[in-house]
Design brief:
Layout: E1 9-11, E2 22-27, H1 30-33, H2 39-46, H3 53-61, E3 65-67, E4 70-71, E5 84-89, E6 101-106, E7 110-115, H4 132-143, E8 163-164, E9 173-179, H5 182-204, H6 209-215, E10 218-227, E11 234-237, E12 241-244, E13 253-256, E14 265-273, E15 278-285, H7 292-299, E16 310-311, E17 315-316, E18 353-361, E19 368-372, H8 382-404
Parallel strand pairs: 9-18
Antiparallel strand pairs: 1-6, 2-5, 3-4, 3-5, 6-7, 7-9, 8-9, 10-15, 10-18, 11-14, 12-13, 14-15, 16-17, 18-19
Helix pairs in contact: 2-3
Length: 410
Amino acid sequence: MMAEGSALLSMGVPWPECNDGVFYEDVVKSSNSSNSRTLLEFYSSNYRYSASKEGWLQRIQNKQIQVDGEVSTSPNLMLRTGAQLLYHRLPWKEPFAPHTLHILFEDEHLLAINKPSGLQVLPGGAFQQRTVLTQLHWYTMKSTQLPPQHGDPSRLSRHFCAVPVHRLGRGTSGVLLCAKSRQAKTKLAADFKHDTISSVRNQALLVTDKRRESERRILKRYRALVQGLMETDVVLIDQPIGKVEYPGVIGGLHMATLEGKPSQSKAMVVYRNKEENSTLVEVQIFSGRPHQIRIHLASIGHPLVGDPLYVAGGIPSTTAESTLGMLHYETCAEDGGHNKPITPLPGDCGYHLHSHRLTFDHPITSKKMNIIAPPPAALLAQHEKKHMLTIFASKMDDWSSAQQRGLVLS
């Protein structure tokens, strides 16, 4: 069931064919111009992860860069300290992403949605417009009766846009909690921070599971389908997670590593499918590291079914050492940027992971909230599927009976 008082509503605007492009501002600092850098040297050295030197040359000659408000097509233009730079990433057609979001709960301060798999929460990479955040902006425009225009965040300056207070991976579906007021955002941010600090302290003190759970202000439970048959009904995972250099991921990829940050998860078996050699598990996380569930379950030898990135051990399927040269291309993509690496990336979908339940105290009323997003069919146990079929059959019988009595129009 969903939260009490919720309605079966949905939100979402179909995506335009192309986005509006993105503008990136820069100011030349003294350290950047100490060697009398040219325009091309500035971008090719500071943003080599975005494009090669040839790619940045293409962008300059394509009139995509302004210096102090004027378009410059000269790659050898010498930059002065304090120069204002503006790079315009041209509009492009983003990869497919669903746009419909089902509302699980909404009031003046909170909005809980059932995020579909395949939709990114915040802008990044190829997805700058097709995100949950964009749909929240458009939803605010509609609910405050602002003219329905894409983009232009300045139109919302007098209204607080609903914003996510936590993240879900692009391929993860389920409950995503958003704040609709500054008071709610501040309180929920404090609660999440409290839980992170508490998790690290309790792990160091070897605190019991029951006490860990009782001290948390926000309880998150997930459903996941993993490879293999888990022998133990309940597994507590204490695998540190940290960043390691990996092609195509700026700053490194999160994975299992002894040098990582303390991380804790608890996996509980829901159903073992011997025929398909898989296990349906419910997972509770006590810390909130990126891709924590995928990494933790893989670290104990049970990667998620369909996960293109993490394999047994909680490491990527392709090691960084074997592909470190992949980003040094001789050719450029259409916009001058690097081609997408052929190695799997964190945003790639295919795995089965669902944010099933979120329990917390309402940030304003202190009422106990229990938000539930029904799992997709792949994350239901056999007995749950049979139960749902029974309910469906019962509803169909009721509908058929009502139709025979003339209460339903055919």
